[in-house]
Amino acid sequence: MPESEHSEIRKLPLFRDMSDENFEILMRGSYVQTFPPLVEIVSEGEPSDFLHIVLSGSVSLYATWNERETSMTTVRPVSTFIIAASIKDAPYLMSAETLEKSRIVLVPSQDVRTVFEQDPQFARAVVTELAENYRLLVKTTKNLKLRASLERLANYILRQQKRAGGANEFDLSIRKRRLASFLGMTPESLSRAFKNLRDHGVSSKGGRVTIFDQQALEEFAHPNPLIDD
Amino acid sequence: MPESEHSEIRKLPLFRDMSDENFEILMRGSYVQTFPPLVEIVSEGEPSDFLHIVLSGSVSLYATWNERETSMTTVRPVSTFIIAASIKDAPYLMSAETLEKSRIVLVPSQDVRTVFEQDPQFARAVVTELAENYRLLVKTTKNLKLRASLERLANYILRQQKRAGGANEFDLSIRKRRLASFLGMTPESLSRAFKNLRDHGVSSKGGRVTIFDQQALEEFAHPNPLIDD
DNA sequence: GCACTGGCCTGACATTTGTCAAGCCCATGT
DNA sequence: ACATGGGCTTGACAAATGTCAGGCCAGTGC
């Protein structure tokens, strides 16, 4: 692995505080791989052989059941995914596929568990990472259960606006088909939802969203830090 | 705190492996409290002052938004809840109320964080607990997004059957109103869902469920270890 | 026994969401 | 410019789910 990536990974909260020695142990068995778009790199149900780190590109985590499929989240650089399965040595609960050309580090789960047992700093960092992921998922679940689909879209747009820097015009960063799945609806319903949001201050054309009445949108969406932050 | 409870808590996976000294630090500031039924003991949004341990009774974790409320999970003895918020020193994302008379240990979050910093064994136990909770929540989310309400009920019944020892007749352990909320539907819809399950081998009267055609139910429910175990 | 209560069920209806088929739009390659 | 294909949109319809009002039933207290 090139030295530049080495040091980039070292800066991640997960690895920042651990000893050089243990970091070396983790990196020794790791390798970087570049995947083309739309490649499945992890399949749910398989043993969790690697902890993954997304260096560039983006990865979709999704799950399937009974011929159905749903998008759970999108992982962007620089962060890790499926750390819970690695630590517990349990099967993956989600599959992962690249959305675009992506560079991904694979760290053997066995090494993660070994170092986790030996390095208290690393163990603490893992806890922080897990606790954050857990809380994110609680928020996602609240979003799903407490809000109707139109409200979920409205709040998604507000979150996306923040991520994009706060301007009142910005791009959706994912394809609508995937957004629909992420929000728990069909593409057709999403299309109609966008139409309905015109009554609440939002217009859209293609992947471009314009908030022409911020106040109306916020009044409708009722964003809440315990769900949306 | 009585010695008997002390040693009961000590046996929990979370505290089993830590040093006596650090366990004492945790217990020193803790106290046991008995709550009557239907008392709110934690409110979402508040700072997380305590890690909670349910010794007896049961506690419902739920969340609210915009006048709506949804049941997230039920905590039964002996286990902890809201550990992620305690560790991160972040506000509670869920509220908690007793379902019945319950004995609950309150461990100051500050002590949890202090000991967490000092005791690698404890830190590891926290990771295991968090990873397990995280994976449970992933399963819950998959259940919600991939299954229709009738399918969720069917699988809930199969899980409950397992919990009850596998007999083909058993009690629902919670009131139907709460079950409906937990499954993400209205009480009326739940009532109709039970009716519809008669076509798939399940009958019910009051809180008592009878599976009269196990095979039919399983064929309809398609239980899956990556969601239901 | 009897009234009362809360939890649950039922029916009628409204709303939301999904399904299927067709069409549009835009980017791409020839 | 033209044909092609994918992604998105639209319309018509069906199915699922929620809402509201009323009724039933078992447990409780008088």
Automatic annotation (TrEMBL), chains A, B:
GO terms for molecular function: DNA binding; DNA-binding transcription factor activity. Keywords: DNA-binding, Transcription, Transcription regulation. InterPro entries: cNMP-bd_dom (IPR000595), cNMP-bd_dom_sf (IPR018490), Env_Response_Regulators (IPR050397), HTH_CRP (IPR012318), RmlC-like_jellyroll (IPR014710), WH-like_DNA-bd_sf (IPR036388), WH_DNA-bd_sf (IPR036390). Residues 147-215 form the HTH crp-type domain. It holds the Pfam family HTH_Crp_2. The keyword tRNA processing does not apply. It comes from Ruegeria marisrubri. SUPFAM superfamilies: cAMP-binding domain-like, Winged helix' DNA-binding domain. This is Transcriptional regulator. Residues 14-133 form the Cyclic nucleotide-binding domain. One of its GO terms (cellular component) is cytosol.
